[in-house]
Amino acid sequence: TAVSSSRFSTTTEPQTFPNRPLNPADSSTSSSSTSFQTSSAAGDIPHQERKNPRAEYQGEQARLRLGWSEEAMIAGAKEVGISPSIVGSFPRKEAALVEFFMDDCLQRLIDRIDSGEELQDLIPSQCIYKLVRFRLEMQAPYISKWPQALSIQAHPLNVSTSFKQRAMLVDEIWHAAGDEASDLDWYVKRTVLGGIYSTTEIYMLTDSSPEFRDTWLFLDNRLKDAFDLKKTIQEATYLAEAVGAGMGSSLQGFVG
């Protein structure tokens, strides 16, 4: 699945964790299991929607067991009433499933950014923290199977698309944070953020703290380190320029 643009057309509404994001096991945004009942006095009370948490949980766990696999795609096709043979039209199968999920998550992040909510009056580091956390929270329901997704992305045949998707992700986040750099600093910022995102993603895989509390602390510390380093580099650059200018003036006065 080639990625040609950082803007996608989708009907998926932006969601906030822990609302259920796209299910990796069925490649479709199927609705949750619901049931309807009427009161004994027919016509007096309209139909009421009633969710069955236990049934939803069991169904979710059954799908998660399939992971990012061809079997998951077949199960998803059956669930929405499509012939399982349609899976044959996706030659890259598991990779296509993971890439679809990545694209959908990026679109949801873009929708969140475009809504203009929650990001106003935030300094760049706060904005980046909020968006990286929001993006990683989309993977939280599937964390037990995410190592499989990472393995698929790292396959030599898939790594190019995976790199493009992650590059687009960090670019969108920096853009939302107000970055307008166009020189070498543009590449440095995105490389640093890409590294922070990836290390936080890996840390999240082994985090057993409630609601991934330790992961978000890890992310916050990494971002603080990165912005402190940037400040240190800038100060060193200004000092070098000042020293250079001073030495130039002194030398000019000496020879003059």
UniProtKB/TrEMBL annotation:
Cellular compartment(s): Mitochondrion
InterPro entries: COQ9_C (IPR013718), Ubiq_biosynth_COQ9 (IPR012762)
Biased composition (Polar residues): 1-18
Keywords, comma-separated and alphabetical: Lipid-binding, Mitochondrion, Transit peptide, Ubiquinone biosynthesis
Spans annotated as Disordered: 1-58
A GO term from the CC aspect: mitochondrial inner membrane
Alphabetized GO MF terms: lipid binding
Known role: Membrane-associated protein that warps the membrane surface to access and bind aromatic isoprenes with high specificity, including ubiquinone (CoQ) isoprene intermediates and presents them directly to Coq7, therefore facilitating the Coq7-mediated hydroxylase step. Participates in the biosynthesis of coenzyme Q, also named ubiquinone, an essential lipid-soluble electron transporter for aerobic cellular respiration.
PANTHER family: UBIQUINONE BIOSYNTHESIS PROTEIN COQ9, MITOCHONDRIAL
Record's protein name: Ubiquinone biosynthesis protein
Organism encoding this protein: Gossypium armourianum
